[in-house]
């Protein structure tokens, strides 16, 4: 592992007026370990190594959150972020998502302005902020689902100063059209990896043409999704990893970052060693021929 690992190696992108390094960090995994000191160490180390784009959600919590794992007292990702990093560095951009929520009813999806506002306020409270840098509207992508109403309500909260920039998540191109007719969109966050959800092969460049960041999740997990990292790598990927003295996870991240300057990586981990490996992947350069072998 090089001694000078830095999240700056893969370059930067602007989310509206906020500049972020393309190699960021996803906070969904930091609640999995009951040892909160480890989570705090991972978050501080990420920032120390140049990460200035964190992805989170108020419903990232253990036990009982998205991952449904863990034991002991409830640990919220947002509260760990606050404990680890507040007062926040000036260049730190925290992206969160609303739509799904957890309350005394269990998981629910916000369908009213009041529910969305309360999710925004919950993020503000947990993070200890007076506004949120970027908020994604995360939908369930049911057939024919429109986002106009919900995105419009979030646009009103943006106008009111609670949100700086808006994005959308788990969406199709028609949702980007709908959202952009209402307010500026700085990012699209979808599930996409070298071997999953390649239906976004045309959506990804479309985002680039419109100056919108494309932020894939599950780049390492692939088809295993919440369960953990996939080990189902092609021979070509394993060969490339060996040739670069890298791990398959690093090649997956490098492939992600090579899909366009507007593509931002947000690998998630609660493991300090994986964090360094993932940030180091930002410096991996793959040739056109190598990318072609990966398909
Ligand atoms: N918008 C949405 O609907 C949505 C949905 C899901 C996730 N997200 C966001 O996207 C982020 C990324 O997704 P993700 O965290 O689920 O998936 P990921 O980054 O693709 O993979 C994370 C999984 O891989 C493991 N891992 C991480 N680095 C590794 C390495 N170098 N070598 C081996 N294993 C490694 C992690 O376990 P360890 O902890 O043991 O390292 C974890 O099990 C999330 O953290 C979250 O912020 C958004």
TrEMBL record:
GO terms for molecular function: oxidoreductase activity. GO terms for cellular component: cytoplasm. InterPro entries: AKR (IPR020471), Aldo-Keto_reductase (IPR050791), NAD(P)_OxRdtase_dom_sf (IPR036812), NADP_OxRdtase_dom (IPR023210). Keywords: Oxidoreductase. Gene3D superfamilies: NADP-dependent oxidoreductase domain (3.20.20.100). The keyword Oxidoreductase applies. It comes from the Bacteria. This is Aldo/keto reductase. It comes from Kribbella qitaiheensis.
């Amino acid at each position: 592992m090089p001694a000078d690992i830095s999240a700056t190696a893969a370059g930067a992108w602007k989310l509206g007026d906020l500049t972020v390094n393309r190699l960021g960090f996803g906070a969904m995994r930091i609640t999995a370990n009951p040892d909160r000191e480890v989570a705090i160490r991972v978050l501080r180390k990420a920032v120390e190594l140049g990460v200035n784009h964190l992805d989170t959600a108020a419903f990232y919590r253990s036990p009982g959150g998205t991952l449904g794992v863990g034991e002991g007292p409830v640990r919220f990702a947002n509260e760990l972020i606050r404990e680890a990093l507040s007062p926040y560095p000036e260049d730190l951009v925290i992206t969160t998502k609303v739509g799904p929520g957890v309350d005394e009813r269990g998981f629910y999806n916000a369908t009213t302005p009041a529910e969305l506002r309360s999710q925004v306020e919950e993020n503000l409270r947990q993070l200890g902020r007076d506004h949120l840098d970027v908020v994604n509207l995360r939908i369930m992508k049911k057939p024919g689902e429109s986002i106009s109403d919900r995105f419009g309500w979030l646009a009103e909260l943006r106008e009111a100063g609670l949100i700086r920039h808006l994005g959308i998540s788990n969406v199709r191109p028609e949702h980007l059209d709908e959202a952009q007719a209402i307010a500026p969109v700085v990012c699209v966050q979808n599930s996409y990896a070298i071997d999953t959800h390649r239906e976004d092969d045309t959506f990804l460049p479309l985002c680039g043409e419109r100056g919108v960041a494309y932020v894939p999740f599950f780049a390492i997990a692939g088809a295993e999704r919440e369960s953990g990292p996939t080990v189902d790598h092609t021979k070509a990927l394993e060969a490339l990893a060996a040739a670069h003295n890298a791990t398959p996870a690093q090649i997956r991240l490098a492939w992600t970052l090579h899909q366009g300057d507007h593509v931002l990586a947000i690998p998630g981990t609660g493991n300090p060693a994986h964090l360094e490996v993932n940030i180091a992947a930002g410096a991996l350069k793959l040739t056109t021929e190598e990318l072609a072998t990966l398909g």
